[in-house]
Design goal:
Blueprint lengths: L1 H6 L3 E3 L9 H9 L3 E4 L4 E2 L2 E2 L5 H4 L7 E3 L2 H13 L1 H19 L1 H14 L4
Parallel strand pairs: 1-2, 2-5
Antiparallel strand pairs: 3-4
Helix pairs in contact: 2-5, 5-6
Amino acid sequence: MKSEYRGAGAYFYMHGTVVPYTLNFVEAWMTGVPIVAAARNVQIGNIDMRFNEINDLIMHGQNGFLFKSEAQAKGILMNLLLDRPYAAMIGANGRNMAARIFSRDRAAADWTCFFDAHRPR
């Protein structure tokens, strides 16, 4: 999957209303492919994007993109596909953010903190 993600010009992500982000989002972000995801409070067809933690992770135009309309998504995707150096920079920034949030070291530290806080005394 890493080579598939890395070979993509962008990763278009449409999350669900129950699960705000999924493993495939994390995997894509960790490989450095630029993420293009629906912003909070966007209605796409009959899908309401109200529940979306991705907006708390992605800084639009810095480490990924959040679109508010289908036309905006199309424009962002076209820009990324036409400007590969820009896409690579956004992807690298996204990968750096994803590594800080989802790395093994971070997960281990978070779990240690959780278990320490819930250890019987």
